[in-house]
Each structure stands twice: as C-alpha cells, then as structure tokens.
Design brief:
The structure is a single chain. This protein is mainly beta and 131 residues long. It has one domain. Helices cover 9% and strands 41% of the residues. The radius of gyration is 14 Å and the shape is globular. The two termini are 21 Å apart. The relative contact order is 0.28. The mean pLDDT is 94.
Length: 131
C-alpha cells in the first residue's frame, strides 16, 4: 500500500508546459523508477531517495496501453510492472513516475511498505491521480 503519494513541482511544471505551450519543452511521463528510500514524499522531490536498477537501468516503460486518461472522472491511471528477473535482492519501498527528457523530471513519488523483491515475485504498481 502506498502512502503519501505526491505529484511534484516538476510534475506540475510538466502539466502546465504540455498544456499551454504550442511546442512543449517537456516530454510526457512514460517511465517509472523504484527504490529503497523511506523519506515521506514532498512536492519539492526531484528524484527518488535511493533508486535501484530495474533491468539494466534506473527506469522502465509503463505497461503497454498506459496511461489511461478518464476525462469523465478526471483521473489518470499508470500501470507499471517489475518482472521476476528485475530488481531482485532489494527491499523496495518507493515508486516514482518520470518523463523521458535527457534530464528526467520526477512527475510523482510514493513510499510504500517494504516488498522484499526476489525472483519469485512480480510487482505491479498502479498509480491513479485524480484532478
């Protein structure tokens, strides 16, 4: 269970930039990161506290078909998957959404109860943001 999920100042900047600029400077969020940090998320966060390698890198793409934007309910759902061969040997406690800029911007960050990641565990992260 995630606690204290926050859309960051960078996330707000991404939304404003992509909404109001005819040629946005920032890419849309389409990647996620995981880590072992436990500090409560704040809107001023710019990265995870302690990112871990997922599959040869610090980030991975969303599950195909996500995000899903629901204009009726004014929410967006992200789905992310950590496979059996990824991030093993870590006690995962944080999750973040980032964009694909060369210097990635942290859209949101959440901290959750520890999950001791082994090859016998697949983790599905689902984040739903309501506006």
């Amino acid at each position: 269970m995630a606690t204290g999920q926050k859309i960051t100042n960078s996330g707000l900047n991404i939304m404003l930039n992509r909404t109001f600029k005819s040629s946005p400077d920032y890419t849309a969020p389409s990647l996620f990161k995981i880590g072992t940090g436990t500090t409560t998320p704040t809107i001023s966060d710019t990265d995870l506290e302690t990112p871990v390698n997922i599959d040869g890198d610090n980030f991975k793409s969303f599950v195909s078909g996500y995000p899903i934007i629901n204009e009726t309910n004014l929410d967006i759902t992200f789905r992310c998957l950590v496979s059996t061969n990824e991030a093993n040997g870590n006690s995962l406690t944080e999750f973040g959404i980032v964009n694909t800029d060369s210097t990635k911007k942290l859209f949101s960050r959440a901290v959750h109860t520890p999950i001791s990641k082994t090859s016998g565990i697949i983790i599905s992260y689902i984040e739903k943001d309501k506006f």
